[in-house]
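Retro notes, structure queue

What went well: the backlog is down to a handful. What didn't: a couple of records were mislabeled last round, so from now on we paste the full input next to the output in the thread. Example, using Homoserine kinase from Aquibacillus koreensis:
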Amino acid sequence: MSWVIRVPSSTSNLGAGFDSIGLALNLYLDLKVNRSDEWEFVPASECLMGIPTGKENLVYQIAIETALQFGYNELPACKVEMKSDIPLARGLGSSATATIAGIELANLLLELELSAEEKLEIATKIEGHPDNVAPSLMGGCVIGHFDYEVNWTKAAIRDITFLAIVPNFELKTKEARAVLPANFQYQESVHASSIANVSTAAICQGNWELLGKMMKKDLFHQPYRKPLVPHYDKLEAYLEHDVYGTFLSGAGPTMIAIVDNQVVKERLADWENAYPEFEWLPLQVENEGLVTMKLNVSY
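Corresponding output:
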């Protein structure tokens, strides 16, 4: 049996929605899975060159971790061809897509017949929070909370561009987490939460101008992480009059600007010419999430 597993990328935090709000974007990790005599992961995209090709691969590590939870100590060997257009370690959910792909791989090989909710529970326990894995699994914009169980809901997002501005350097999540404060004072927590609450309401209403305003006020993570992205303030100021708002995608270093579709068409070439050292990716929300197909067409 052969399958294709497709998982969309994601952005998370959306300013003040720290560890809680994420949305799926139309960049993808694709796995072509065929049974084989031994485990082999074959990178078929430039950004994947150098990844582990055996059982050290993250997808396998997640798959066997999932299998162990259901009493299986091994998985049938497969050759897995991996294609991706998601920049690695840039804050666009590349590790979350591998997590979802690994869970689905175990689900298929062991015929576990896991529900979407069960997959989300496994993925969130692995990641520690739902903001990347939930949208990659469920699609769309997901607002989630994790405390022994996952509670989540979806917000509809339509007809808006999320413009990813990707630098040519990586930023590991561990490094970005290390700069965050260990504690907040009570009043500071209340203030930060009120910003996040208004941000959530703005997302649900599609009020992008209000969301952009709240993003600039975030107190949870962006003030601490901006120094790790030295061009942030300069780019934010450069785009300010053309976009609704700009935020640090996930742990960074990618920045994302929320932009009217027509404005992107009119201004993208100018932005690329002004800052050619960045990759400018106009992205849309992917509403479908994880897709698995039995392989019956050419790949």
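Agreed that this is the format going forward. Reviewer comment attached to the example: The CA atoms of residues 46 and 84 lie 8 Å apart.
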